Amino acid sequence: MTTPERDLTELLRTLRVYEHAGLWVYDTTDEAPQLQGSIFWFREREGWSQIRPATSRDDATQLWVWLELAVYSDLHAIGFLAHVSAALTAAQIPCNVIAAYHHDHLFVPASDRERALDVLRALSATP
After folding, report:
1. Domain for residue 97, yes or no?
2. Can you give the pLDDT at residue 84?
3. Could you say which DSSP state residue 111 is in?
4. What is the pLDDT of residue 126?
């Protein structure tokens, strides 16, 4: 395994985006969620938040795509997510981020999928 990268220029230069299949939904429950395909759980004061696969019963305006920033970013890297977030903000694209050990994961509205991918690809092309 390679070592994690901290340098912002190198992170952006080597950034690739991996799109996970399917559509995803943010959900909340008072009781601990069951796995059933969920990929994320987090306990908040108000209850459990989770991200789960979308079903036909979910509101079409609340569907998200999962984009993995496929660069091994160090947990101590400074400015990487701020740079990504600023680019998406400039394009008026909402984004929810989960920072995991090896990669950062973005959830953007399914309706903004193509635009978000274009913005992220452009980041790695910027000198």
Report:
1. yes
2. 96
3. G
4. 67
Domain tally, the chain: 1
Q: Residue 3 domain-assigned?
A: no
Please report the sign of the dihedral spanned by the C-alpha atoms of residue 104, residue 105, residue 108, residue 114: positive
CA distance 15 to 119: 12
**CATH number for position 95:** 3.30.2130.10
Residue pLDDT, tens place only, 57-98 = 999 999 999 999 999 999 999 999 999 999 999 999 999 999
Please check whether residue 22 is in contact with residue 52, taking contact to mean a CB–CB distance below 8 angstroms: no
Looking at the domain assignment, is residue 58 inside a domain? yes
Q: What digits encode the pLDDT tens for the residues 25-39?
A: 998 888 777 767 888
Q: Is residue 2 part of a domain?
A: no
Band (1; pLDDT cuts 50, 70, 90): low
- Check whether 114 has a pLDDT greater than 80: yes
Output the 3-class SS for 50-90.
Answer: EEEECCCCCCHHHCEEEEEECCCECCCCCCHHHHHHHHHHH
Q: Which residues form the domain of 33? A: 8-122
Contacts of 92 (CB under 8 A, 6+ apart): none
